[in-house]
User: Which sequence fits this backbone?
């Protein structure tokens, strides 16, 4: 059974850091791209970052470039999102997803498999 389980969210002050983890099972992570997404209250889900199978290809939303870093450890079936210099506008539920392809798909609807999400709240 294919599963993605996020963890690592929490409450952090502006300027702080968090590292999110996406633990996968039920498929061979080595072959597939993984995306991180977020959804704030009243807003649509948006892409944050993506890593292709080897980890050599990554991309980021403009709003997080230079602050967030995506990485993966295929041996541990886990993808990470290191978030630094957090801002209140980063507050959202963060999700990881796969489309079971090695492409960082352009549209949220193209990602068919999702975790349950982890809440990140940036507030003083």
Assistant:
């Amino acid at each position: 059974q294919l599963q993605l389980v996020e963890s690592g969210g929490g409450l952090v002050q502006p300027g702080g850091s968090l590292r999110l983890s996406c633990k996968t099972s039920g498929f061979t992570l080595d072959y597939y791209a993984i995306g991180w997404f977020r959804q704030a209250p009243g807003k649509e889900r948006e892409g944050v970052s993506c890593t292709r199978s080897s980890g050599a290809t990554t991309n980021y939303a403009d709003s997080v470039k230079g602050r967030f870093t995506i990485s993966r450890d295929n041996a541990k079936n886990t993808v990470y999102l290191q978030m630094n210099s957090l801002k209140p506008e980063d507050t959202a539920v963060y999700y990881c997803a796969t489309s079971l392809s090695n492409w960082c798909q352009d549209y949220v609807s193209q990602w068919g498999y999702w975790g349950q999400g982890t809440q990140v709240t940036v507030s003083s």
Remarks:
- The mean pLDDT is 96.
- The two ends are 40 Å apart (CA to CA).
- The first strand starts at residue 3 and ends at 7.
